[in-house]
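Lab notebook, bench 4. Still working through the backlog of constructs that have no structural model yet. Next entry is a single chain of 273 residues. Request: give me the structure tokens for it.
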Amino acid sequence: MNLIKRFKTVAAVSTTLLLAGTLAACGGSAEESSGGLQDTYVVATDTSFVPFEFKEDGEYVGFDIDIVNEIADRSGFEIELETTNFDGIIPGLQTGTFDIAIAGITITEDRAEVVDFTSPYYKSGLRIGVPADDTSITGVEDLEGLTIATRLGSTSADYIENNIDGATPNTYEQLDQAYLSVEGGGSDAVLYDAPNVEYYIKTTGGDSLKIVGELLEAQDYGLAVSQGNEDLLTAMNEALAEMIEDGTYSEIYQEWFGSEPEWLDELAESQVS
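Model written out:
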């Protein structure tokens, strides 16, 4: 039996759908199911984070999409998927436009003050990508004073500002713009989440970019939930823990990354159920 579930929807790009998301978040269009949960929740994502979420043949697919659909199935609710730029996700959760968000969102203290997070579902870090013919940048210490492409509103942008002396973060709403900036000479390097940098160079940018240096800043991704939804958070944590325990998580991971995660045992130990 194939446990990977695809989610078909249409991008929410109009103010009408945005209003519908607001009403759903306020409970105006969703009845409660058993356990105090609504029948439907609005889930926000940013579909430029390959291979976690992206659009292929008119369909939203990716590791995150499969994870959130499996969690929803096990918890007993439907999801209404909406897309937005990454920097709009946390504000959207705060205002109630969205109920849940999944988009490779790093769990940080600052974010945890305004939204709730599930237990971690992915362990990551930051990677540096530079032009394939560059020999001057071999690690993070060589980025001082340079222009570094990254994603607007990301922890990578914060890392550049706080940890690399004299560096200028060149921020973009869409990740492909960051890579194109380096390939076109507008930035000296790209610094972003390891799985995305690795995937881009493996698939699209292998002739133009290469990875240098060590993995930076160990990070955990979590699903973000608007505050005040304790029943929802508990149900999602229980579903995630079950998925890891019964092997479903590993199956989804292998579908998108080709092997089991090296940190699976560590991830299992971090679950709250």
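Notes after review: The radius of gyration is 19 Å. Residues 230-246 form the longest helix (17 residues). Flag for follow-up if needed.
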